[in-house]
Design goal:
The chain is α+β, with helices and mostly antiparallel strands and 381 residues long. It contains 10 helices and 15 strands.
Length: 381
């Protein structure tokens, strides 16, 4: 019997997107055979799903726990079993401490779902939450201090400029340095204030290509003058539902980020396309479809691996003297539009993809109710 033939239906998008190794198991003659596994499991096992199918799961996975007993209990009780902090070994590699969950799929074949969560993933999620909380607190404090700091900085810059009028050229270099550095700090404080005071978007139907061309022209004569710009637009793309000024700010930030990644020059490609399948939960809990996509691709060195997972967090930057607020602001604006942004990066190619909703349909006009002549008239007696 081919075990894979009895694989229960699993939503493909969810199955592929699970960040932890997941396996579907079936009892065949007292052995738990692998029916299928997701991409995270293939990576974890260093083997393809085709190589793993129909193999005994607990021969392939050496788990320091009574897994056969746990599987039987999960089927009998029709309830999940949780096993925390156990060693899991997949072959020649040293064991990894994991949390394991095995749960019935409640299908006629009594299939089980096995999830293996390496502790490093749980720790990383916890660290991400702490980073977000710390960043939020830091930005709140920076907002309060920004105005108070900018006032004396303006005075320092003004005093340095007055002093430079009576100094030698050699000493004037020092006052010029003071002015330059104070202005740089003021610009940083402006970004902090901008990040904290972002107004809600005034969304309406706009042609995204108009916004992209405005951003491109600005980049070509400014910060991206050393870059080559290419485009691949879908001319049939419907209007997006967005604030044109805020969307322009997003695109400019992404183009600037790509330009600064290649100070010696390179190529930036701007692409638009229509593709259904991506949905997010809206502010009121409704499902929002995001079929309109904009990609900004560069051929630079790629994101440093150490920060790639947190690149949209405040104060995370891969560049020397970077503020780490540009991409955080981009993420905040896109979230306010009920959109989605993600990045794929490797040496030689980094792609930022912004996904946005279409213009919502207008509500249907209320239908008038036909009434019989005289229906609203009061009878006279």
């Amino acid at each position: 019997m081919n075990a894979a033939a009895h694989t229960p239906p699993v939503p493909g998008a969810i199955w592929s997107a699970l960040p932890v190794p997941a396996f579907l198991l079936a009892d065949r003659g007292g052995k738990e055979l692998i029916l299928d596994c997701n991409p995270a499991a293939e990576l974890f096992m260093s083997a393809s799903a085709g190589q793993l199918r129909n193999d005994p799961a607990f021969d392939r996975l050496a788990i320091d726990a009574p897994m056969e007993e746990a599987s039987a209990r999960a089927r009998i009780n029709k309830a999940p079993i949780f096993i925390n902090d156990v060693d899991v070994c997949t072959g020649d590699r040293p064991p990894v401490v994991c949390n394991v969950q095995i749960a019935p799929m409640n299908d006629p074949a009594e299939t089980l779902l096995l999830l293996i969560a390496p502790r490093e993933i749980a720790g990383r999620l916890g660290r991400t939450r702490m980073v977000k909380a710390a960043a939020k607190s830091a930005i709140g404090m920076a907002e309060m201090l920004a105005h108070e700091i900018k006032n004396p900085l303006a005075g320092i810059a003004g005093a340095a400029q007055l002093l430079s009028m009576n100094l030698s050229a050699e000493d004037r270099e020092l006052t010029d340095l003071i002015v330059h550095e104070t202005r740089r700090i003021v610009q940083l404080l402006d970004q902090v204030e901008q990040f904290g005071d972002q107004r809600p978007p005034e969304r309406r139907a706009i042609n995204v290509h108009d916004v992209l061309e405005r951003a491109r022209r600005s980049a070509e004569v400014g910060f991206g003058a050393h870059m080559v710009f290419l485009d691949d637009y879908d001319p049939s793309l419907p209007d997006v539902f967005a604030d044109p000024d805020q969307l322009l700010q997003v695109i400019l930030n992404l183009l600037k980020n790509a330009s600064e990644a290649q100070p010696g020059g390179g190529t930036i490609k701007i692409r638009t396309y229509f593709e259904r399948g991506l949905n997010v939960q809206g502010f009121d809990g409704r499902r929002v479809s995001l079929p309109l996509h904009v990609e900004i691709q560069d051929d630079g060195p790629g994101l440093p691996e150490a920060i790639s997972e947190n690149i949209f967090e405040p104060f995370v930057s891969g560049r020397e003297n970077g503020t780490g607020l540009g991409l955080a602001l981009v993420s905040k604006i896109i979230a306010a539009h009920e959109g989605w942004i993600e990045v794929r990066s490797r040496p030689g190619q980094t792609v930022f993809r912004v996904s946005l909703p279409m213009v919502p349909p207008k509500p249907a006009a209320p239908r008038s109710v036909d009434r019989k002549p005289g229906a609203n008239k009061k009878e006279s007696h």
